[in-house]
Amino acid sequence: MADDMSDKAKAQKDLLWSLYADIRVHARHAEALRSNAVNYVLVIASALTAVVLADRRVERAELPLCLAVVLIGLFGLAFVASYTELYQRNRRRAERIRKLLDNRYFTGGDVSLSKILHEADQVHETTRLYRWSRRTTGSSHRFWLLLPVVVVVVGASLAAAAI
Q: Are 148 and 70 in contact (CB under 8 A)?
């Protein structure tokens, strides 16, 4: 009977580790999709802006292109917000599973997954680069939201100039 329990415990541990890894992969995938969406938004908006500004002036006939830049920025903003939420959901799920793994398999010792990550974060957070980037952009998630907002502002400015 004891062997059955150890097999069951091993199977549970393997399932938890696999689930943790799978959820982390989903979180990274959401990050990759968000990054790609922002890249597409920037490339398309840049191309439209280049067409509008090719003659070094903005004319009323170019208003539809200017509004297209605004719409592309709004689409990008919605997409980034959606995939930021998806990333956060998967990150929180993974943290919960990691805590469960800590509680089941790392209790009573000096080492736990959470402790290792916390210590690594403490070292990282003392670096100049970390402090500078946090002061400058806040969280990286806000930075990703800022890029489509810039596209909306540029498109709105061009549209105002076209009117």
A: no
| Residue with tokens 């597409």, as numbered in its chain | 40
The proportion of the chain whose per-residue pLDDT surpasses 70, expressed as a percent, equals: 97
* Contacts of 27-35 spanning 24+ positions with Cβ under 8 A: 27/87, 27/90, 27/91, 27/94, 30/83, 30/84, 30/86, 30/87, 30/90, 31/83, 31/87, 33/83, 34/79, 34/80, 34/83, 34/84, 34/87, 34/144, 35/144
Instruction: Give the predicted TM-score (pTM) of the model.
Output: 0.81
Q: How far apart, in whole angstroms, are the C-alpha atoms of residue 50 and residue 44?
A: 10
Three-state helix/strand/coil letters over the chain: CHHHHHHHHHHHHHHHHHHHHHHHHHHHHHHHHHHHHHHHHHHHHHHHHHHHHCCCCCCHHHHHHHHHHHHHHHHHHHHHHHHHHHHHHHHHHHHHHHHHHHHHHCCCCCCCHHHHHHHHHHHHHCCHHHHHHHHHHCCHHHHHHHHHHHHHHHHHHHHHHHC
pLDDT digits (tens, 9 = 90+) for 109-141: 788 888 899 999 999 999 999 888 888 877 777
pLDDT > 90: what percent of the chain? 74
